[in-house]
Design a protein that fits this description.
The chain is 48% helix and 12% strand. The strands form four sheets. The chain has a five-stranded antiparallel β-sheet with strand order 4-5-6-7-8. It has a three-stranded antiparallel β-sheet with strand order 3-2-9, with helices on one face. β4 and β5 form a beta hairpin.
C-alpha cells in the first residue's frame, strides 16, 4: 500500500513539473479575465478566499466577452430548454414512430434528459464552458449518485494535472485540493482518516481546518480487478499515518469507463492541455487595461492638475473648492496655477480603446453569438443566414472537437450509469450487439447542418431554371431523396415527413383518381357526340346516329 501511494505521489510531482508553464499562463489569464476560477481552491486559509482577486481588471471587456462566448455555447450546444441529442442505431429506420427500436430510443433520450435536468449537470456544464473559453482546458468529473443518478464536479485551473494516452486522448487525471476535516469525515468515513485528521475532529473548531487531499484516476495497470478499465485513489498529502503507523488510502475504486470529461479548445502536438480564445486575447486585454488606466490618468490631470503656488501660501489656509476664498497679501503674483497645461488626445485614446474592445469581442466570437443585436441596419434573413454560416466555419473545428472530447463521453458515461442501475428500459432483441450512435441536434449543430443544405438548394434551383429549355432535366434528380436529406440536415421532426409507403399510397390514389377522371371525361365526350349525332338531320327524317347504326 505504501509503495503504491509513493508511486502515485511521484507521478503527481512529475505531472506538476510538466504543467508548470501552463500554470504560469493560467495565472495571467485568471488575473485579467476570470480570477475566481483559478486562485480560490489553491491550498490557502479560508480567511484569504474572499479577498479581492480582480485588481488587474480595470476594463471588464475581456471578462464580459468570455462570459458571452460561454453563454452562447451553453445555449447553442447543450441548452436545458430543448433536446440537444438523439440516439441512433445504424440500419434501422427511425422515422417510423411505431417501430419498437424507435420507441426504445425515444424513451432512453427522455430519461437521460430528465437525469441531466434534475442533477447539477447544466450548472457544471456552464462552468465547463467558462473554463474552456478562458483556459482552453475544462475537465469535469461525472460520478454515480444515489439521489440524482449522476453528480458533476469542476476542478479549478491550477488544481488538476492531465496526461494523454498514445491516441492523444486524456486518460490520466490527478488533482490536489482541500477539504475541511469534517468534509473528509463525511466523504471518506472517519475510520479512513489519518490520526492527525481524526485529532482535528476531536478538537473544538478543528473540524473546519483544511486538509490537502490528493486524487488520482488513471488506467488500471493491475492494481484493481481486471474488470475495471480505470482505478481511482484518494489519499492525504504527506502520507500521514494512522494509529498503527500504516499509510492507507482514503478511498479507492474502479471504473468501467473514464469518469473524467476533459475537452480542450485546441491542441498542438501531444499537449495534454489546450489553447483558448482567452490566450489569444490576453495581449489585447493587457493593452486595454493599460490604455484605460492612462486615459483615466489623463482625465484626472485635466480635472485636477498638479499646481504651483506662491510662497506666501505656504502653511496658509487655501481652498480649491468652487466658491472657496483664499486670503493672501500682495495679490499681484500670489495664487495657485497649473504647473503645465495638460491636453491629452482623449478622443484618439478612446477610439483606440474601442478598436481593442472590438478585437477582444471578435476573438471570443461575440459577433457570432450576438449577431442580430449588433447589426446597425435591418438585414434580410438570407444575409443573416450567410453571415452566420461564415462565422460557423471558424467555430466548426472547435465544435467537432467538443463533440468528440465532451459530449460523446458525457452521453456514454450517463447512459452506462443508467443502464447498470436499471434506469433504462430493456432494449429490443433486434438491436442486441448493435452500436449506439449519437446525433447532436443543438442550435449550433443544426446551424452547421443547415449550412450544408445550400448545395441542395442550388441544385434544385439550377435544375428548375433549365426546365423551360429542357423539360426532362428533372429526370436526373431524385426529389424524394433530396427532400429527405434536406429535412434530416434541418433536423425536421420525423412526424412531419411521410414515410415512403405513405407517399406511394398517396401517389397511387392520385393516379387512380386521374384515371377515373379521364374515363369519366371520355364517357361524357361519347355521350355528347351521340346526342349531337342524334339531333343532326341527314334528310328523309333520319338522324346521323340512326343512319350510322343502321349502316352498322
Amino acid at each position: 500500500m505504501s509503495d503504491l501511494i509513493t508511486r502515485l505521489q511521484a507521478d503527481l510531482e512529475a505531472l506538476r513539473s510538466e504543467r508548470y508553464s501552463w500554470f504560469v499562463h493560467w495565472r495571467e489569464l485568471a488575473n485579467y479575465i476570470l480570477p475566481r476560477r483559478y486562485m480560490w481552491l489553491i491550498p490557502t486559509t479560508q480567511q484569504q478566499r474572499g479577498q479581492p482577486l480582480n485588481n488587474y481588471i480595470i476594463d471588464s471587456t475581456g471578462t464580459m466577452a468570455s462570459r458571452t462566448c460561454a453563454s452562447g455555447m451553453m445555449a447553442g450546444i447543450t441548452s436545458p430548454g430543448r433536446p440537444w441529442f438523439k440516439l441512433r442505431i445504424e440500419g434501422f429506420d427511425l422515422q417510423d414512430t411505431s417501430n419498437p427500436v424507435s420507441l426504445w430510443l425515444a424513451e432512453c433520450e427522455k430519461r437521460m434528459m430528465r437525469v441531466f435536468a434534475e442533477s447539477n449537470f447544466y450548472t457544471s456544464v456552464a462552468t465547463m464552458y467558462e473554463d474552456l473559453v478562458v483556459f482552453g482546458t475544462a475537465p469535469m468529473i461525472i460520478y454515480e449518485d444515489f439521489d440524482d443518478v449522476i453528480r458533476c464536479y469542476n476542478p479549478c485551473a491550477g488544481e488538476y494535472f492531465l496526461a494523454n494516452s498514445p491516441r492523444l486522448q486524456v486518460n490520466t487525471f490527478f488533482r490536489e485540493f482541500v477539504y475541511t476535516a469534517r468534509q473528509c469525515a463525511d466523504e471518506f468515513g472517519e475510520e479512513n482518516l489519518s490520526e492527525n485528521a481524526r485529532g482535528l475532529l476531536r478538537n473544538p473548531g478543528g473540524g473546519n481546518q483544511q486538509i490537502t487531499i490528493c486524487h488520482s484516476i488513471c488506467p488500471n495497470k493491475g492494481d484493481m480487478p481486471k474488470i475495471f478499465a480505470y482505478c481511482e485513489y484518494y489519499w492525504e498529502r504527506g502520507n500521514p499515518k494512522d494509529q498503527a503507523g500504516d499509510v492507507k488510502f482514503l478511498r479507492k475504486k474502479g471504473f468501467f469507463e473514464f469518469p473524467v470529461v476533459a475537452p480542450r479548445w485546441a491542441t498542438s502536438g501531444n499537449d495534454a492541455y489546450g489553447r483558448s480564445p482567452g490566450m489569444d486575447a490576453l495581449g489585447d486585454i493587457k493593452q486595454l487595461q493599460q490604455e484605460t488606466k492612462r486615459k483615466a490618468q489623463a482625465l484626472d490631470k485635466m480635472v485636477n492638475p498638479p499646481l504651483v503656488g506662491d510662497v506666501q501660501l505656504k502653511n496658509q489656509p487655501a481652498t480649491q473648492i468652487p466658491g472657496g476664498l483664499t486670503y493672501v497679501s500682495g495679490i499681484n503674483n500670489a495664487g495657485l496655477k497649473p504647473i503645465f497645461t495638460v491636453m491629452p488626445p482623449v478622443q484618439e485614446i478612446m477610439l483606440d480603446i474601442q478598436e481593442i474592445q472590438v478585437r477582444i469581442r471578435n476573438i471570443f466570437f461575440n459577433d457570432l453569438f450576438m449577431m442580430i443585436s449588433q447589426l446597425q441596419t435591418v438585414r434580410s434573413a438570407t444575409e443573416i443566414d450567410a453571415r452566420r454560416e461564415e462565422k460557423l466555419v471558424m467555430l466548426g473545428p472547435v465544435l467537432e472537437r467538443f463533440d468528440n472530447e465532451a459530449l460523446d463521453p458525457i452521453i456514454d458515461r450517463t447512459f452506462n450509469i443508467m443502464l447498470r442501475g436499471g434506469l433504462l428500459p430493456a432494449p429490443p432483441e433486434e438491436i442486441q450487439g448493435q452500436h449506439l450512435q449519437v446525433q447532436y441536434t443543438s442550435m449550433l449543430a443544426t446551424a452547421q447542418n443547415a449550412a450544408a443544405t445550400a448545395s441542395i438548394e442550388r441544385l434544385f434551383a439550377q435544375a428548375g431554371s433549365l426546365v423551360a429549355v429542357q423539360p426532362d432535366i428533372m429526370d436526373n434528380i431524385d426529389s424524394d431523396a433530396g427532400i429527405a436529406d434536406y429535412a434530416e440536415k434541418l433536423d425536421v421532426p420525423p412526424k412531419l415527413i411521410r414515410t415512403p409507403e405513405q407517399v406511394m399510397q398517396i401517389r397511387n390514389t392520385r393516379i387512380q383518381q386521374k384515371q377515373q377522371a379521364d374515363a369519366l371525361m371520355a364517357t361524357e365526350g361519347l355521350a355528347k357526340a351521340g346526342k349531337t349525332m342524334s339531333e343532326t338531320d341527314v334528310g328523309g327524317g333520319q338522324s346521323a346516329l340512326a343512319m350510322l347504326m343502321g349502316g352498322a
